[in-house]
Amino acid sequence: MKAPISIPTFVLLETKNRNFYGFNILSQKCIYLPPLMAQLIKHYFKEGDFEYYQNYCNANSCHEFDGIKYTKDEIDYYIGKILFFEKGNLFQKGDFKSRINKELTAEDVLYNISNSKHIGFEVTEKCNLDCKYCIYGENYNHYERRDNKNLDFNKAKRLIDYMFELWCSSNNQSINTTKLISFYGGEPLLNFELIERVVDYINEIKHKYSINIQYNITTNATLLHKHIDYLVENDFRLTISLDGDAHHNSYRVFKDGSPSYDIVLNNTLSILKKYPSYFIEKVHFNSVLHKNSDYIKIREFFKENFNKETEISELNPLMNNSSKALFKSILSEVEKSGIDLNQFNIHPDIKSKLVFLSLASKSRFDSYFDLLEDENYSKCYLPTGTCLPFSNKIFITVNGNIYPCETIPHDIPLGKVDNSTVQIDNLEIANKYNSLYNSISNRCSVCYNFNNCTACIFLDLFKEPNCPYFSSIDKFSRNFSSEIEFFESNPIQYSKILNSVHNG
Amino acid sequence: MAEQMRWLYLEPYVFFNFNGKSALLFNELNNAYLEYENIEDEVFLYLCEQLSNNENNYCIPIEKKDVTNYFFNEFVRDLKRTYSGDFVYASSLAKPFITKPQIFVNNSIEYLKRDSFFSIGYKSKLYLVELTIHTGSYELKNKCKGVFSNYNKTLNKSTINKILDKLSHEVFEYRNLRSINLICYPNTDMLSLIDFIKNVSSHFDTTIHMELSHYLVLDKRNHYDNLKYNLYIDSKMEMNQLLNKSILLNENIRLCIFVNDEELLSIALTLCDSLHNHVEIIPQYINNIDFFNKNVFLSKDDIFNNQSLTIHKILTNGLLNRIFWGKIVVNSNGNICPHNSIISSNLSIIHNSLDEAIIDELNGSKTWFLKRNDVKPCKDCLYCLICPPISEYELELGRFNLCNINN
Question: What is the domain range of residue B161?
């Protein structure tokens, strides 16, 4: 067996604002360094001692750096502080590989399914729209072919029975919590009969299991006028896909190319009029940012028309190379707008800022368990930031294939519901994940982002096994410095983001 | 020469607390602490206020006129001496980014309560880490002490058997449950515990708590040989007898000695010297306030010389009680509550199931979340997060400031 690779864990950084910092990856301590101290550390890392400075000081009464004069006492002080840091292991070298040596087990998979919060049904492949950026359209290759199929109720029922049994098993660690049942498409309202049958069936059995249910549907809203009474009656959480005004929504068109905007707007305003309190409580929006849309204007549209925020997302990154021109980054949009971010309620790229702060300040913990973990315990990580299988959701397609969510490519199903059974082999799933982890783990073991990775092994590494997110020390330094620059310029965002954002 | 900014900043490994009058600073890397009491200088008061403001992230600009302030200079000298912060001139106009230590829980109870569908029950069974079961009782209330807090004139043994039978299945539903304590009284039917112990002892760290006198007459018949015992002693005679007993060599036995005066303490310390980790000294309050004042009350040095004190622990103290967290007690009549002293004080926080007790605690039943920053007089003290969490002791005594910090 090869000896672990010991690599520097202390990174010296300089921001464009000419401030210096030192960051230790393992202890996650980020320390501001006054200019002289940064210079002394650089010298110390190169030469291993401070002899040059000590001799210089003995021969000269003062030393000038960056236009500032320092006395011998000041130089001695910072040398003392550097040695204090060294004694506190701030400069220690480390081994990332030993920190990412975890493997997934069949028990982990069973635990995660049993505690999954959410079943998602792909109700139908049919859709009455032909959105230009649809993952099932011509711009993507990795999703199951659309044959206008509907999900068979018996398959849905089998999965419901399977999940309800697990939710009531001793592996489930929740008490009286609510589970989410979601309907996706295609356009799910095109197979409304299945939705009704699933809801009727669950309403019939949920009391027996003492499980609370919240229904959820994501729709293009073109057929809402026909079914809204039923959705309100069953207290559905309703997510409407709408990209903004007529111009922003221009990629959402019917099969004949005609725009869907007017119908969607009318249907939505009708709900607001007929069911105002339901609208406030249960209606949500999602919007896709693309080359023809504008982040700020989208938000303004929803505020003005519905007094609501919309969840804006970027296009799925697995598009074909020829379609990359459709893509637009949220952050670059907002930065271009010149908005004072300190006045901005929620930073558009806030989750990535939170990820940075969680790394830089070690002040964000997922749960009370993490908070109570022994501080000296060296936490081990699975490679990448991929969600554990079914930890959030279990998703079934019209073909009965099972996936951990609806967004990942459909090339590798994790299970299948056929005419008689639900086939989920926990060991096989664990092995599948471990095999994918193994293919990347050597890369992760020298990656400076190993303990803060957000890459999904299915989405981000699917086509690029070399990992586009890999961070050498230089790349890490650049990215980390640029994140610090944001907080140097927007200091009140530090507490605001840590305190108010949920990393859901 | 380029324009320069003057920045005063604290290091991210420093905890700083300011209550409007006094300031306290603790450096976790070298355990250094600085305290400034009853600050009167306006400039220094302003600086402390600014440094404690979350929006400033431990870093504030200093005006030229304040650089000559005596208190400011003394403060900077202290910061530099302890490597706790610095006052720098920088050519950069951008404010240095200091990661002021703060703690936030993503799936906090507040968040889960607000969340439209997950609720606080989400994965809440994971919170149970230690279960204590009272398997008997004292018939006289005044005999109850320490963990033996169950007072019940009419003990119903069939009820206890039913409880044990139920729990012997239920305990396996709690994935993070690590320890089970069985509190045994002279009237405990030890034979009725055998099946329960057999069932759980290989899965959980199981400890039997009983008085030494009870243990010595226990008919063990090999049923209980390999278990862990906490044996409680409360008299000089018992302690002196112990000094020659082979029981002291049993690695599975921990002696828990109730002490309420100097003489008992002295004998207990002798045992501690020879047995190290196998002895625990438990101060017993019988209106002996002078003894407590001298031997139990914490001083500032006691607090800061604790090598395990970290900012993480200090900040965690502001969110939850690290001593009570995850612990549930089942009484011999089936009542369930969060800690022993509730049993002894007959407070009515009782639950019918472990799940109900967990949910109630998470909902803010003030035991798992019993923090010094919520109770008087601690909440007004600069040390309220630095002191160890409120213990069962303090609940029994009905006072929270077992310390010599603010007289």
Answer: 109-397
Question: How far is the alpha carbon of B54 from chain A, nearest alpha carbon, in Å?
Answer: 6
Residue B175 domain flag: yes
* A298 to chain B, closest Cα gap in Å: 25
pLDDT at A227: 97
Torsion on CA atoms B185, B186, B191, B197, rounded to nearest 10: 20
Of B90, B123, B149, the residue that ends a domain is B90
Poorest-pLDDT segment among A66-70, A119-123, A262-266:
A66-70
Please, what is the average pLDDT of chain B? 86
- A84/B106 touch (CB, cutoff 8 Å), yes or no: no
CB pairs under 8 A between A and B: 169
Instruction: Please name the residues between 161 and 180 in chain A that touch chain B, using a CB distance below 8 Å.
Output: 170-178, 180
Distance between CA B343 and CA B149 in Å, rounded? 6
Calculated CA dihedral for residues A448, A454, A457, A462, nearest 10 degrees: -90
Residues B83 and B121 in one domain: no
For residues A60, A61, A65, A66, the Cα torsion angle rounded to the nearest 10 degrees is -130
The answer to whether residue A323 scores a pLDDT higher than 70 is no
Which of residues 117 through 146 in chain A touch B, CB cutoff 8 A? Answer: 117
Domain endpoint, select from B90, B119, B150: B90
pTM of the model: 0.87
Q: Does B296 touch chain A (CB under 8 A)?
A: no
**Domain identity same for B55 and B132:** no
Number of domains in chain B: 2
Q: What ipTM describes this predicted complex?
A: 0.87
Q: Do B13 and A29 touch (CB under 8 A)?
A: yes
Where residue A377 falls among pLDDT bands split at 50, 70, 90? low
Give the pLDDT of residue B348: 47
Residues B29 and B152 in one domain: no
Find the radius of gyration of the CA atoms of chain A: 27
Clarify whether residues B79 and B219 are in a common domain. no
Chain B residues with CB under 8 Å of A180 CB are 117
Backbone angles phi, psi at A248, to 5 degrees: -65, -30
Tell me the shortest Cα–Cα distance from B239 to chain A, in angstroms: 35
Please, which pLDDT band fits residue B345 given cuts at 50, 70 and 90?
Answer: low
Assigned domain for B406 exists: no
A343 has a pLDDT exceeding 70: no
Please check whether residues B283 and B378 belong to one and the same domain: yes
Considering only CB atoms, B103 lies closest to which of A111, A363, A488, namely A363
Provide the pLDDT for residue A502.
Answer: 65
Yes or no: say if B391 and B403 are a contact pair by the CB < 8 Å rule: no
Whether chain A has a CB inside 8 Å of the CB on B178: the answer is no
What chain A residue is nearest to B360 in terms of C-alpha separation? A175
Is A30 within 8 Å of A360 (Cβ atoms)? yes
* Cβ contact, residue pair A367, B121, below 8 Å: no
CATH number for the domain that contains residue B279: 3.20.20
Distance CA A122, CA A319 (A): 21
Instruction: Please indicate, yes or no, whether residues B36 and B131 belong to a single structural domain of this protein.
Output: no
Would you say residue B405 lies in a domain? no
